[in-house]
Amino acid sequence: MAQLWGGRFTGETDRMAYEFNASIRFDRRLFHQDIQGSIAHVTMLARQGILTEEEKDSIVRGLTDIREAVDAGDMEIDETCEDIHSFVEAALIRRIGEAGKKMHTGRSRNDQVALDMRLYTREHVKETDALLKELLRVILAVMEENVETYMPGFTHLQKAQPTTLAHHYGAYFEMFKRDRQRMADIYKRMNYCPLGAGALAGTTYPLDREYTASLMEFAGPTLNSMDSVSDRDYLIEYLAALSTIMMHLSRFCEEIIIWNSNEYQFVEIDDAYSTGSSIMPQKKNPDIAELVRGKTGRVYGALTALLTTMKGIPLAYNKDMQEDKELSFDAMDTVRDCLILFTGMLRTMKFRKERMAASAMNGFTNATDAADYLVGKGVPFRDAHGIIGRLVLYCVEKDTSIDRLSLEELRTVSDKFEEDIYDAVALKTCVEKRLTLGAPGREAMEKVIKEHNKYLMNADL
Question: What is the pLDDT of residues 282-331, one digit of tens each?
Fold first, then answer.
């Protein structure tokens, strides 16, 4: 059992207790970050005269060789070690001898793992941002091509007013844009280096924490050593943001599942993102959309678990905090996979535009516009609302729609109706006359699309 703390102990750790305590099974993911942090640390130690240049060069070469050997498959990470830090240090000592024993000077596993986890999370924040940006590009491409693709807009899952596919997709553009803003916010706040905090109270060695931070492209060092080793706020914030991303993906998936149903038939999901039934040959199931929707709870669970773990922990480091990793790693993997698959599904999905337009016409989505028409003829809105309500009831009884009624039928409920009513309640008119910023009319949508294109030209994190 390879461990770094045996001097204090005379008895063997119980095998089950050792394995229960060990974390290498999952923190092996932090291998590259552990190497990166160790190289930065010893580079600083040499600059401060704590290590000689020869010792530093020997350690850096050894760490680099170990990284290359593991990456090439020439060396296996030894899972009998307690954690990834133990593995790297033991491998280094075997490779370069006495100099390897000096690598840990002025450092604790507490600030070491705090650094590794922060580096790992920082990389994933950047990856999530890039995946969101690609998803936004796909959404915007659909918007640009469907400014005049008419469809029903819904409230309470009932047809409400006509809109366009561009406008509907635009709502999700705003959601995922906010998700990117959260990534930028998290990145900015988390980008401070805990290395040098020691176990909880710093160290007596003359470390240059600002230099160490700069070597790893942090904005600077953290300013309280106790908080440095016990802070997981950045990870909680990231999991909260990932949960929000999954909520947005789940909502979008729910709509795609509905649109894909036989009752709607608004979309055709590509074969690559669908499956069939083992018994019903006619089925084409939206399995990817359903799985993304289902995996949302998995990510929520990681957030709830970490919040629960952290809620009763006194300062500073406690072993409970080892529980920050497994579920967080799973959540990061889940969101990455969901974003990649969802973006692919969206990119290849086909729209049945005529079906969408017909659905918009058959659900009285132009009723509000008919009421506005009467207002334009001098009828008070509240009276116009009642008139159109009676007209809708008449249409329901006759199994027809407002635009299909004769002028004589329309005038039985109000003599204000004239021939121009038919143009006023036409689908194109209902949409195009909505010109306020954020509305589905072409002029308004083109302004928004222009802004979105400018936004996507901005640099990544």
Answer: 568 999 999 999 999 999 999 999 999 999 999 999 999 999 999 999 99
pTM attached to this predicted model: 0.91
Which among 298, 297, 303, 287 has a CA at the least distance from the CA of 341? 287
| Catalytic, out of 41, 58, 104, 156 | 156
Annotated catalytic residue 104: no
Between 172 and 361, residue with greater pLDDT: 172
Report the candidate in 114, 73, 106, 78 with the shortest Cα–Cα distance to residue 93.
78
Is residue 124 annotated as a catalytic residue, yes or no? no
Task: Answer left, alpha or beta for residue 196, where phi above 0 means left and psi between -120 and 50 means alpha.
Answer: left
Q: Which of 230, 277, 328, 452 is catalytic?
A: 277
